[in-house]
Amino acid sequence: MTQAALVTGGRRGIGKAIALALAEQGFDVAVADVVASDELTATAAEIAAKGRRAAAIAADIGRIESHAALLDEAEAKVGPLTTLVNNAGVSVLSRGDLLDVSPESYDRCQSINTRGTFFLTQAFARRLMGRAADGHRAIITISSANAVAPSIARGEYCISKAGAAMITKLFATRLSNDGIGVYEIQPGFIETDMTAPSRAKYDALIEGGLTVIKRFGTPAEVGRIAATLAMGLLPYTSGQVIQADGGLLSVRY
User: Which residues are tagged catalytic?
Assistant: First the structure.
């Protein structure tokens, strides 16, 4: 059976790396992002260059009424989906004191990182349950080390990612007996545009022992983890959390 995946937030960074890693493993891949762009089109072109069917789709996962159309378009272009990668997400409108968090920034994080992710996962799961299983099927959510570790300069982001972590636990409990692997990847410090503004600060902290592996991770490394999960190479697991963080969250004394 040909496997096909939808990767949200697939324009660049971790999402792009996951899409390319899946393509290298034989997946046809649709990449979605909030607006059409040359970057999104280029990512799809890189997938196609690997000999796979590819599609670039503009879609805002915060608009839950558009989820069915997103899934329909992805399947029309790359075939019946077997994997969903929930990577789309936003950070805070501005970092600052927890006492100054605005409702606008809080609601934005919740709308996309948690609410949008929940209902897209629900729509995808219903679709899978409505057809016969043929090969491994997976739902992979990219959350953050901040689902566990508080960062008080962006509290609303942490709350939204903690919610995303619970989404994995819930759907794993509901779907694992139906042969659908549901997983969460918690990236730590990864070389992306989101981490670039604070790179110098965290390079120093990492060198001082903040992480066990003393460097930033790469999007390609997260991509390899996601591809491993999508291929079903962690048998007899359910709701597994993979901390792609170089040991950031490990307990040490």
Answer: 157
